[in-house]
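Open question from group meeting: does this chain pack into something compact, or does most of it stay loose? Before anyone orders reagents, we agreed to write out a predicted structure and look at it together. Recording both the input and the output here so the notebook holds the full record.
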Amino acid sequence: MSGSYAPDRPKVKPKLNQNGMKQTVTIFTKKGCSSAFLRLRHNRKYIFVSTGRPATDPAVQMMASRVNTYLADLALAGRLKAIDNDTLTGKIRSLMGVEKVVRGAFLKAYEEFAQSRNKPRTVETYVRTSKLLHRFDPMIAQRDFFEIDAPYISKFRSWLEGRGNTINTVNIHLRNMRAVFNHARDTGLTDCYPFSKIKIKNEETEKRALPIREVRRIFNSMHGKWRDVWVLIFCLRGINAIDLYNLRPGDYKNGRITYVRSKTGKRYSVKVEPEAAYLMRKWRGTERLFSFCEGTSSYRNWYINACRQMKKDIGHTTYEARHSVATLASQVGVPLEVIAQMLGHSDTSRAVTMVYVDPDESKADKGMRWTLDFVKGKRKPEW
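Structure tokens returned:
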């Protein structure tokens, strides 16, 4: 599906100068950019040159007149057709007194911004967006910021949706592009901002929690490695798959697993309940805490295989384990703030306060114990 992007050709009505001759250069403004551009057609292609000034500035009209005179002189001398577009663009910029714009400015800024991200997984998402942009538009490496306009982004969004991506996945790629534009504006690389016209709205995440009878069936009637992985994720407060994969033997001490959550960068301590302790002994690893996480070259390869095998063996996914913990804890009466603590969710509204407060893990431990007892059919008193 490469090469599917084709920019719209602007329809320009010929304008006449004071001598009644066809005007070669027109002043052009793009939505989302405060600067005006000079636009001309040469060798069957359009050339855009930023003036660096708003269209209302009288200097813009003077620039256009100067360039028109220059082009008319070249045409009369019979030298205009022989000049290639890049050379002509450079001469026009020199004549206008504006700085040269490096071709491919958008992609260069995008790659530099991506590599400046702190988390490896964040860098990976930016790299995936870049790869998709290359497939969508083979000329992306040559594009300036003003060429990535609202119609371009809308076509990219439609192309992604046509490949079967969900709305939330599409929005990840659009947000990555928007972050680059925000950074470029802040650092003075561009004054263009097409996202003022682009709406990015999340699709509500599908509820993936299992009913209590299905969770009990997994615990009591199923067997095998991937059933054990699912139960471990559940018993460890719905730990994310990447955090489970990254655990090392040294992370387990005194009946607790302590780790830094990949998504938030915050440290969490999880009590190992008896149901999880048995499985930890069964699947004890050497390089990693669990042997079923060893022998793979990367987390991505392990996770893809884990999802495939888990779906095949028990019909469910790691996400359903995490969602089920939250839902069953709520059903048993665990307060929402305790459930958030169990799952390792960040509370940005209390972020400053939490710098001074040592979180009480006993409430989260109690909430997880109540949830497991609910799965085992035990009744609990009021919270």
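Observations to bring back to the group:
The longest strand covers residues 36-42.
Residues 15-96 form one domain.
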